[in-house]
Amino acid sequence: MTSTGAPTAGATLRLLDKADKEIVKLDRTIVGAVYKFQHEFRKNPGAPGFDLKQLKGHERLWSARVNREYRALLVNLGGNDWLLVSVKHRGHVHRNLDRLAYGINQVTGAIEYVDLQVVEDDVLGGDSPAARADAATAPASDRALEAPLFAGYTAEQLADLGVAEPLIPIALKLTTDDELLGLAEYAPRHTGEVLLRLRDGVPYQQVMDEVTAPVADVAGGPSAGAGGEDWRAAADRSQAVVITDDESLRSIIEEGDFGRWKVFLHPTQERLVRKRYSGPARVGGGPGTGKTIVALHRVKHLVDQLPPGHNKPVLFTTFNKNLAADLRSRLLSLGGPETLDRVDIVHVDQLATRVVSEADPGNAKRRIDDAQALREWRQLLVEAGGSRWDAEFLCDEWNQVILGQAVASRADYFKVRRAGRGRSVTRPDRAEIWQLAERFTQRLDVKGLETHRQVAERAAQLELIRQERIEARRRQEEERGGPGNIHAESGTGAWLRYRYRHIVVDEAQDLSAAHWKMLRAMVPREPDDIFLVGDTHQRIYDNQVTLGSLGINIRGRSARLTLSYRTTREILGTAIGILEGTDFDDLDGGTDDLAGYRSVLHGGRPSLRSANTWDNELDLVLDQVRAWHDVPRESVAVCVPTNEKADEVVARLSRHGIMATKITGDVARRAEGVHVGTMYRFKGLEYRCMIIAGVSEGLVPRAAVDVWERTDKLRHRRELQRARSLLFVAATRARDALTITWNGRPSRFLRPLAGTTFDR
Ligand SMILES: Nc1ncnc2c1ncn2[C@@H]1O[C@H](COP(=O)(O)OP(=O)(O)OP(=O)(O)O)[C@@H](O)[C@H]1O
């Protein structure tokens, strides 16, 4: 090893993705020494205590002393710019100098580091077939024992896909899935993704298109970085984070997996976050692919581009109050108060309420949701002595047709198109329905009630009027050669302007047409105006829209994330099984699917368990929760189809000394004990261990749904789809373990999982 005239000024220190995972496994005292090390190293890497040395035979790899026993391994990016790739015992470093491999990936252009000794010893197990086969001394007969998993590919083909070069010989010798999963856990992330996709049987070209091409693009094409000279630029393309203060490393290490999203964006996520879009953009993708993470980073990115000020030109909105509260705390953790100060975070119905209250400050009506509105319809029909129409149909007609298309009069209702409504109605039918709708609105008025949908429609209209006024003024001023979109409102002297400069929407699949109309009118049609993330496979409210027809044109600005960070491959397989045989839309009149959806995480198979009665099923739930005794209670959830069942689960767990809390609209993430709730409540949340109970025929889907089969086939299909998506959402909340239980007949949605082990 050559000693150097190491620099004396302060240094930039970055941390490579996965080095954190290695550090976290070290003894606590060593982790403490690493914190101290990074603090001192950033001040002066040349300080004698570090004994900074270039490793023998390595052009860019250096070692620095963390304590007596441990060494930090650092890649020098040029000058005083360093990348921390590993912390290892000094004995290991000395013994394995020729086994430490690093370089710039020829395809992704990112820096990768691999300790081949660790791969063989820890990942493959020193005596695994692959490790044995890798050793030059291994007898040929051993190597022939099992067929290698990637026998059908050449080293060159794997290299073209971007598999880390030093790992290719090992990859080609892997013979079991356990070895492959071990390698994927350790290897640079892209390598793991490629190999797992190939192993899943995905054709070579498809892996190239779906996994490699999106990342190769980031590097500016497959050969970017091939010269390998510009290591700083390569570091920018790598999954690495600059350690700016003492807290940054500590927060990654101590928050474990929960803190990684803040720093290690996948290149595909990063690109979506930073891109300039010429108009509205949409990011789709299956559960747990980081859509919310992308939305959070996007908001921060937009704020970072703003000129200084004290206003809030960025709106960050989502479907409900709990989710909005969650976005607020995560944005605070990501960007600090400076970011939060420039962002209006509010859920979409609250936003609509704000608009309506501003226009009509005296309005003291109480807002009710769809379920309460349906109850009002039922009562109205009882009081009216019945009708040919049932409450569900009328409620839907009122929401989708009368409110949805802003039908203001009887005459308009006679003319309105009812596209997408399964049951056709004649002119006399329309007269009858209109009369009932009028009675319904009067009833709400008298009771001082207003549905969220009514508020959203009214807000949309108010915002459209406001937008027309702004645009009219803008045109006038342009004619006069005046300024942009700030205008004195006639008569009042007040300034009238667009409410926001950028809007970012999470859970976009559940917003209604009225919500979109309102949002569209709140931002000028300029680049980066609307950025929405969502997954139509997770739509659990009946709000199918075509964004293009609502003035939100996402054509050509639509992307999809496919790598799940939450769910294991095993859970994902079960969840996808639930959706079998159904089609989904893309929010814009086309179709969407989960092609390429995958995970590199690995865990136990979901357990499917049946009981004779609900009471016995409650015992199964209790046993399962007890079996997860080593998991913090707050990371365990039980999800059931009805409120009553949620109460019963809470009661059963509590009776046996297990703290449990029912999650409601007001209580979610921070509730103490095991979280219990109906499926709707779990939207957007995640847990380490999850039980979905009560998945019996008659409950999932509700028995009432099949009534539509005879009278309204379209509606029947929609209701089934919604129930299926609800179960899908629930199943994909689980990070590590999933148990599904039922009593009596299992739900028809579990049928595609028949191949899975059903435990009795
Ligand atoms: N780049 C990343 N690095 C580490 N963790 C990540 C990354 N991206 C996402 N995650 C983690 O993956 C999990 C899922 O992310 P997120 O909630 O954003 O997914 P989503 O697509 O919005 O999911 P859903 O549609 O199910 O609500 C979270 O725990 C998040 O912290």
Automatic annotation (TrEMBL):
<dbReference type="GO" id="GO:0016887">
    <property type="term" value="F:ATP hydrolysis activity"/>
</dbReference>
<dbReference type="GO" id="GO:0000725">
    <property type="term" value="P:recombinational repair"/>
</dbReference>
<dbReference type="Pfam" id="PF00580">
    <property type="entry name" value="UvrD-helicase"/>
</dbReference>
<dbReference type="GO" id="GO:0043138">
    <property type="term" value="F:3'-5' DNA helicase activity"/>
</dbReference>
<dbReference type="GO" id="GO:0003677">
    <property type="term" value="F:DNA binding"/>
</dbReference>
<dbReference type="GO" id="GO:0005829">
    <property type="term" value="C:cytosol"/>
</dbReference>
<keyword id="KW-0378">Hydrolase</keyword>
<keyword id="KW-0547">Nucleotide-binding</keyword>
<keyword id="KW-0067">ATP-binding</keyword>
<dbReference type="InterPro" id="IPR000212">
    <property type="entry name" value="DNA_helicase_UvrD/REP"/>
</dbReference>
<feature type="binding site">
    <location>
        <begin position="285"/>
        <end position="292"/>
    </location>
    <ligand>
        <name>ATP</name>
    </ligand>
</feature>
<keyword id="KW-0413">Isomerase</keyword>
<dbReference type="GO" id="GO:0005524">
    <property type="term" value="F:ATP binding"/>
</dbReference>
<dbReference type="InterPro" id="IPR035093">
    <property type="entry name" value="RelE/ParE_toxin_dom_sf"/>
</dbReference>
<feature type="domain" description="UvrD-like helicase ATP-binding">
    <location>
        <begin position="264"/>
        <end position="568"/>
    </location>
</feature>
<dbReference type="InterPro" id="IPR027417">
    <property type="entry name" value="P-loop_NTPase"/>
</dbReference>
<keyword id="KW-0347">Helicase</keyword>
<dbReference type="InterPro" id="IPR014016">
    <property type="entry name" value="UvrD-like_ATP-bd"/>
</dbReference>
<dbReference type="InterPro" id="IPR014017">
    <property type="entry name" value="DNA_helicase_UvrD-like_C"/>
</dbReference>
<dbReference type="Pfam" id="PF13361">
    <property type="entry name" value="UvrD_C"/>
</dbReference>
<protein>
    <recommendedName>
        <fullName>DNA 3'-5' helicase</fullName>
        <ecNumber>5.6.2.4</ecNumber>
    </recommendedName>
</protein>
